[in-house]
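Researcher: Structure for this, please.
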Amino acid sequence: LLADAPTQVPPEAQAEEAAEAPAGPGAGPAFPSRLAGALAEIPRQALPEGLRAELRDYQQAGYDWLCFLNEYGLGGILADDMGLGKTLQTLALLLREKERGASAPSLIVV
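Model: Predicted structure, token format:
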């Protein structure tokens, strides 16, 4: 469905999008179009250098999802069965941000 989403915003819709665009990292006038295009394929992210763990493929996919959401200034949810690595994925994201120099607090609801 999203693979067919347009990546360019018609000129008449740009002003409307600019008024509705969220604030945050990566936000701007073309935010909704860029987000729709980016959802077509979420890129694999490198793990933080300080992480002393290996992620399984499905854990890497969850980490990639969290990184994607973070890049666009969005919050998100990881939900699956107990024991599949949500804590590790979340800690990996927090370490990634720390290694990038982030000092803002993070809120995690369990």
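Researcher: Any notable elements?
Model: The chain has four helices and no strands. The helical segments are 11-20, 31-39, 57-71, 86-99.
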